[in-house]
From TrEMBL, chain B:
Its cofactor is FAD. Keywords: FAD, Flavoprotein. This is NADH oxidase. Residues 338-386 form the NADH-rubredoxin oxidoreductase C-terminal domain. Pfam families: Pyr_redox_2, Rubredoxin_C. GO terms for molecular function: oxidoreductase activity. It comes from the Archaea. PANTHER family: NITRITE REDUCTASE [NAD(P)H], PYRIDINE NUCLEOTIDE-DISULFIDE OXIDOREDUCTASE DOMAIN-CONTAINING. Residues 4-289 form the FAD/NAD(P)-binding domain.
């Protein structure tokens, strides 16, 4: 299980701007739990427990570019 | 005296092996030799760079300082010309010799060139390295019309690049649909429509008989076997890889469409291992030899190889791979071995959603999901557990399918 043992939750915010110092991850690089979280959150206004394989500020390439917001 | 490890190749397989060796053997001497001019980068994001969607910097994974920080001797632009397995040494094009206690071959492949006239003309591109991506981006930006050849997972990247750069393209396919070995016409049509929406027109029962060039040797048209002529300023060819086995041709290392390894990533030479695209490995899930070129598989193979280089037999490679296409506003995913098997089931589960599952002896061996990827984890679990789904195949096509939906009788065989 790779969900973090914190109370933080994450959501994905669609983004078109990718600064050069951003860590960009492709869906295929993520572990299965993080992939499931991305599938659940992409394009939807909802949150899920923070995935271990993703950090706040990461950008994920799925069907669009999504910025990870973990709070 | 510490053990020495030489790794040929700094893609994800070689780099993950170097990382694992350093973590688990702090005193080991580790050397990485690569013929490329840059250290590890993200090969699955270079298509995004070529599309003009990403700057260069996020593509890089290991800066050269990473190798210094981890005491790994990285040699860029270094071509290995000979492997001497009797004397545990490799020789480079510049006459250097590197001796090893254990060697890892993570040498990958090279894109195949079409066996037709003018296939090496200027403006005809293959897509494998970051440098290829830079060349493609530059070439596409100056193009108005393109031709794409290769109706598979790599060819569609060219279609997406052309679509993203507003280049009108003809996608010449030999059969009657894209990736016909894994998709029926019904599933492929979803992909065809997405291409058309981006200005890329699939042309079926076609292909390339020859390319025509202008006076400067630059491609100006592709002519298909039917005699149809398609003018182009740019051509993208993705018809497969030649695996770089020539390096071991004069050694006793066994090859069969790649370098043959066991489930521990070891070749038939005791202290020589291989990982990544180059391997023909013993697939414990499929029960036969297999190949896989996905990022996750290569990374895992590199890690497993490193552990077994340190302690043979300590860790097996058992992996269900997957590969997604994220160019469109719906996701596409292939998993396992979707082109293999002796049976299959497929269904349209909702508008724009389609799936196909390949079966062998009643067990899932792979599949394709379009639009709805939610059953991805369940299908992979079925593969890992070797569940026999005979008589319950239709359940696999149900929206919201879960492993729990199968009767208890299908538990692990």
């Amino acid at each position: 299980m790779s969900l973090r043992e914190t109370n933080r939750s994450m959501r994905l915010r669609r983004t078109g701007l990718i600064p050069s110092d951003t860590r960009v991850r492709h869906y295929d690089e993520l572990d299965e739990e993080a992939q499931a979280t991305v599938r659940e959150l992409a394009g939807r206004p909802q949150t899920a427990p923070e995935a271990d394989d993703l950090d706040d500020g990461d950008v994920v390439k799925f069907t669009d570019y999504y910025e990870v917001r973990a709070r | 005296m510490s053990d020495s490890y030489v790794i040929i190749g700094d893609g994800i397989a070689g780099a993950s092996a170097a990382e694992t060796l350093r973590e688990e053997a702090p005193d080991a001497e580790i050397t990485v030799l690569t013929d490329e001019g840059e250290s590890l980068y993200n090969r699955i994001l270079i298509k995004e760079y070529a599309k003009g969607k990403l700057p260069e910097a996020p593509i890089s994974i290991h800066q050269e300082s990473w190798y210094d920080d981890h005491d790994v001797d990285l040699r860029l632009n270094t071509v290995v010309v000979d492997i001497d397995v009797e004397n545990d040494a490799v020789h480079t094009h510049e006459g250097e010799t590197f001796e090893y206690d254990s060697l890892l071959l993570a040498v990958g492949g090279t894109p195949q060139q079409l066996p037709v006239g003018n296939a090496d003309a200027e403006g005809i591109h293959h897509f494998w390295t970051f440098q290829d991506a830079r060349n493609i981006k530059e070439s596409v930006e100056d193009a108005e019309r393109a031709v794409i050849v290769g109706a598979g997972l790599l060819g569609i990247d060219f279609a997406a690049i052309c679509g993203a750069q507003d280049v009108e393209a003809k996608y010449l396919m030999r059969g009657d649909n894209w990736w016909r070995y894994a998709l029926s016409e019904e599933g492929a049509e979803i992909m065809h429509e997405a291409m058309r929406e981006r200005g890329v027109e699939p042309v079926f029962d076609s292909g390339v008989d020859r390319f025509e060039v202008d006076d400067d040797g630059h491609v100006e048209a592709a002519v298909d076997p039917n005699g149809e002529r398609y003018e182009c300023d740019f051509a993208g060819v993705a018809i497969g890889l030649n695996f770089n086995t020539e390096l071991v041709e004069d050694t006793p290392i066994e090859t069969e469409d790649g370098i043959v390894v066991d489930e521990f990533m070891r070749t038939n030479v005791d202290n020589v291992y291989a990982a990544g695209d180059i391997t023909t490995f013993n697939d414990l899930i499929l029960g036969e030899r297999a190949k896989n070129g996905s990022w996750g598989s290569a990374k895992e193979q590199g890690t497993i190889a490193a552990r077994n280089m340190l302690d043979y037999g300590s860790d097996e490679f058992e992996w269900v791979s997957s590969y997604s296409i994220t160019h469109f506003d719906f996701p596409f995913l292939s998993f396992g071995h979707p082109t293999l098997g002796d049976d299959s089931v497929e269904a349209t589960t909702a508008e724009g959603e389609w799936r196909r599952v390949a079966l062998k002896d009643g067990k899932v061996v792979g599949g394709v999901l379009i639009g709805d990827l939610s059953p991805q984890s369940a299908f992979k679990q079925l593969m890992r557990e070797g569940r026999d789904v005979t008589g319950q195949e239709d359940l696999l096509m149900e929206p919201g399918f879960s492993v729990d939906d199968l009767a208890a009788a299908t538990e692990q065989q």
